[in-house]
Amino acid sequence: MAVVFGVVLALGYATPAHAHGADAPVAVDYRVEVASVSVPGVVVRPVEGGARLELKNASGREVVILGLQGEEFLRVRPDGVDENRRSPTWFASRSLGGSGKGGDAGAMPEWHTISMDPVVRWHDERARELPAREWSVPLLVDRQDPGIVRGMIAAAPAPATGWWWAGAIVGAAVVAILYRWKWALVAVAVIGGGLTVTWIVGSAWLAVSPSESLTTQLVARLWPLLTGVGVVVAGLALAARRVDIVAAIAGACLAVMVGFADSGAFRYGVLAGPSWGRWAVATALAAGLGLLVAGGVRWYRTMGDDN
Predict the structure, then answer these.
(1) Transmembrane stretches, by residue range (predicted)?
(2) What is the pTM of this model?
(3) What's the average model confidence in pLDDT over 281-294?
(4) What integer pLDDT is reported at residue 100 of this predicted model?
């Protein structure tokens, strides 16, 4: 019973504020496209649904990414990456919204090595969010040759939002109807929680860059990850004994922490994580609401039988 109490306690402390690492939203309504890179051997692509750009330098030359004020921002050498911590763009890039302030574009760069691989990811407000437009990021090659990355931002068609919501609600109703069959609810909890964990780990894996670890990305997604694990544990506990109220609480947390918190996947066209993320969110919402109702009904009927 102590394990069950710990699960409930962990779920109770979960909040949706830290649902995504590196500030990446679950989905966005625009698509970032890279049209051209003028430096041979340099590849740039959008990652995490356009939340960050990734530059990979296989040119054998030193490539400096210039910041918002034309200052030296990131230096991608053939054998590693340095960041200029006096760059105003470095401060702005610390968050998705670019709210960080500081630095001096005219100061001598203060370089800090962040990776031994010639790959870097960063938030860049020049290549993010609507309206649809062209964008560019200037480069400096070997301290003398100018280069440039060009691209565009286009509106992304929305998914069939109503159908995703309807499917999740119908799924929740089906789970609720199964309240008499304990093993069906156990399966729902294990599948719903397990799929959530798989999705969170998959999203974290896709967000990992050479300067970050998988652990860092998982910690940034800690609460939804713990919620998924907690729901699996609650399901296994239900298999061992009658802990219907625990299943109901775990279901409520899953619905709120993952289903509703990440429902942007139903509204926006470009996902930041794996391509099957909408299915994971829909499953979490259906399983969570269904377990909430089914567990609550089972608990209520048990209380009535005791009286």
Answers:
(1) 162-179, 186-208, 220-239, 246-270, 276-300
(2) 0.85
(3) 98
(4) 67
d(CA 190, CA 229): 9
User: Which tens digit of pLDDT belongs to each residue from 176-198?
Assistant: 999 999 999 999 999 999 999 99
- Which amino acid would we find at residue 236? L
Whole-number Å distance between alpha carbons of 222 and 105:
36
Helix, strand, coil % in the chain, rounded to nearest 5: 50, 20, 30
H or E stretch covering 14: none
Average pLDDT, the chain: 90
| 244 and 223 Cβ atoms separated by less than 8 Å | no
Going from the C-alpha of 93 to that of each of 22, 99, 104, the distances in angstroms are 10, 8, 14
Residue that is written with structure tokens 């939203």 in the block: 25
**CA–CA distance, 42 with 159 (Å, rounded to integer):** 33
Q: 131 preceded by cis ω (within 30°)?
A: yes
Outline where DSSP puts E strands in the chain. 27-28, 30-37, 42-47, 52-57, 63-66, 72-77, 80-84, 111-115, 119-122, 133-141, 145-155, 270-271
Q: Which residue is it, tokens 């050479």? A: 210
Q: What would the DSSP string read from start to end of 35-86?
A: EEESSTTEEEEEEGGGTEEEEEE-SSS-EEEE-TTS-EEEEEETTEEEEETT
Rounded to the nearest 5 degrees, what angle is found at the Cα of 71, between the Cα atoms of 69 and 72? 145
What is the CB neighbour count within 10 angstroms for residue 12? 12
Q: Kindly report the number of other CB atoms within 10 A of residue 209's CB atom.
A: 21
